[in-house]
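User: My collaborator sent over this chain with a note saying "see what the structure looks like." That's all I know about it. Can you take a look?
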Amino acid sequence: MQNNGNKALNLPSLIAVLFTLIAAYHLGNALVGKSLYRPQHLGTALEYAHTPINLLKPVIWGFNANETPTLQELPVWQAAAGLVFKILGSTWYGWANLVSLIFFATALWPFFQLARQYVGQRAAWWTLAFFLAQPLIVIYAGRAATDGFCLVVVIWFLFFADRMIQTGQLRWWLPLVLFACLGAVSKLPFFMVAGLVAVSMLIVKRERSLRLWALLAGAGAVAAVVFMGWSHYCDSMAALAEYPYTELRLSRNPFMVWWFFGDLQMRLSPGIWIKGSWRFLDATLGSLPFAVILLAALIRPETGSRSSGCWPLF
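Assistant: Without extra context I'll predict from the sequence alone. Here is the result:
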């Protein structure tokens, strides 16, 4: 008779332990005065703590000579952190870390649902476990910055995209558009990757319905219009700042365009792709030898599940 040592691992408990360790890491660092944060994001939250919260006029004290609003992404995370500072009457940086952890926690359920849709329930638990064990995710989850929040927005976007694709129901389109727009004005590179993943969902499903393709394209088009409007507004605010030595607006300085977007020669450079691939594998897997796991999933996906090989790419 076999003993209980062979019983299956309690995966939900493992997820709870991993998330608890992540929270303890960030809050513990904050308690000893070593909070993880990005100055440009936390700076706006601290300014909101002492001034009215205005999403259209985020100011980082000392960033511009004339205190002109400094707009990059739509400052939703900054506003949330600033509101917590106001309510608690304290600007302890750990509160900002806690805000990031709460935002991040809301993405675990849709992430699990996406994984379950494509690889089954037990594999979905393992997917969530490996997700929480990634070094980059450990940092994003609780750092006082917008990165984790932007990741949350992307996961919810993919969840609603999957619901629309699987059910064909129009009611999923409105929340899809909402998170598409929020993703575009929060961190465009994240949203562009999410858009490619959404397209891959349609391809994996072998969807031939022009209606679903049009709905997904429509969501992207609305997000593009919102992004263009936001970029124009940001540019107009940047024009009010004092730049005595150099012009930093994209529309006026070709060098700034190259700085942010590069050129075709740089994008086709093998060195860029090698370095990017190395950083991706190191950040997501923690150790280059673990890349074997990713390669095995792509080369030999689970029998009977033609989509399981695509899941590691998500």
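A starting point for your reply to your collaborator: The radius of gyration is 21 Å.
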